[in-house]
Amino acid sequence: MSKIFVDACFGKDTQYTPVWMMRQAGRYLPEYMEVRKEAGNFLNLCHNPKLAAEVTLQPVNIVGVDAAILFSDILVVPNEMGMKLDFLVGEGPVFEKPIKNEVDLDALLGGEEAALKLTYVYKTIKIIKEQLADDKALIGFTGAPWTLATYMIEGEGTKTYNICKKMMYSNPELLHKILAKVTEVVKLYMEKQIEAGIDVVQIFDSWAAAIEPAKYNEFSWKYMVEIADYLKAKYPHVPIIMFPKGIPGFLDEVYGNFDVFGVDWSTPMGYAKEKLGDRYVLQGNMEPCRLYSKEATTECVEALQKIMGGKRHIFNLGHGILPDVPVENAKHFIRECHRVSKK
Q1: Which bin fits 64, alpha (ψ -120 to 50), beta or left (φ > 0)?
Q2: What DSSP character marks residue 40?
Q3: Binning pLDDT at 50, 70 and 90, where does residue 24 land?
Q4: Catalytic residues, which ones?
Q5: CA atoms of 88 and 322, how far apart (whole Å)
Q6: Is the CB of residue 305 less than 8 Å from the CB of residue 331?
Q7: Percentage of the chain with pLDDT > 70?
Q8: In this structure, are strands 313-314 and 281-284 parallel, antiparallel, or unpaired?
Q9: Residue range 276-317, pLDDT digits in tens
Q10: CATH class of the domain defined by 3-341
């Protein structure tokens, strides 16, 4: 594995600050679109270890990042728990039968039974590790229980989260039961990813900002910490990255046994450094749209290096790269991160 990347996650000194870009191979690479076309659809691509491994390696081989992130999707977890999932053109992921009550929840698989159904992910990891260069790390990932639950309850992506929030305030017991069941599956899912060969774990809470700060720990963060505690007890050598998007109002309350805190682009890095820089390595937080301009990219990279001077930092975007970003601009970002980190 990449000693540089893993050492950076643990806050150890390295020759330079490593960089990777959030989102996997992604729609910005023409090579990815060719493989996606071969697979037929997105879910088929996730289920095909050979093709999923190929697109995982594309950003490493084409763009030059220091770590690959496993190609998969967070929603394979509820899918293998028993929720029928489709990716509809123009609509995104849709579950045929969202969870409405405890009967619906009880019908889903849990724990080991669900985690064992994700064998195609573990096979993908093994193929990647056979091909990934020794100086590159492989990042495995999962959605946080709250983010997964939003899809499972709403049935699709949402801008209001009103069904989830109605449950949060009117039937919190049911929501906690959903979150607890998902958490147990995720623990074992990530453990099996580690056993298959990943070097770093990242937990994405993409919809963290949907929860008011006063309720965030109760309905999301404590479940993420529970996953981290479970993994750290068994695999203390594996770095864990937490990435809750859009929660600057919760930074004073952040706690837990993990190594890296991902800072999204809406949270000032100086503020995150003040609140968390003494306890965790920080990752991020460039606004992804800066990649449309090489000048704007360089400006941000240099500013981040200046802000983080003396503190360990992993260069990254503050959320996913967009599909129409020129590949050359992505390469420029990597080159600039390596340039300034060697100063």
Answers
A1: left
A2: S
A3: low
A4: 23, 27, 36, 73, 151
A5: 19
A6: no
A7: 96
A8: parallel
A9: 999 999 998 999 999 999 999 999 999 999 999 878 889 999
A10: alpha beta
Q: What is the pLDDT of residue 274?
A: 95
Bridge-based pairing of strands 85-88 and 92-95 is antiparallel
Six-digit token string for 308: 């983080």
In sequence order, the 6+-apart residues with CB closer than 8 A to the CB of 275 are 251, 252, 254
**pLDDT tens by residue, 112-171:** 999 999 999 999 999 999 999 999 999 999 999 999 999 999 999 989 999 999 999 999
Domain boundaries of the chain, sorted by first residue? 3-341
Residue keyed to tokens 């998007």: 245
In single-letter form, the type of residue at position 205 comes to D
Q: Which two tokens stand for residue 299?
A: 């400006």
b/e map of 46-56 (b: 16 or more CB within 10 Å)? bbbbebbbbbb
The answer to whether residues 68 and 55 touch, using CB atoms and an 8 Å cutoff, is no
pTM: 0.95
Tokens of 153: 């309850």
DSSP structural state of residue 71: -
* CA 282 – CA 9 distance, rounded (Å): 9
Q: Side chain identity at 83, as an amino acid letter?
A: M
Q: What six digits make up the tokens of 248?
A: 């600057």
Cα 115 → chain centroid: 18
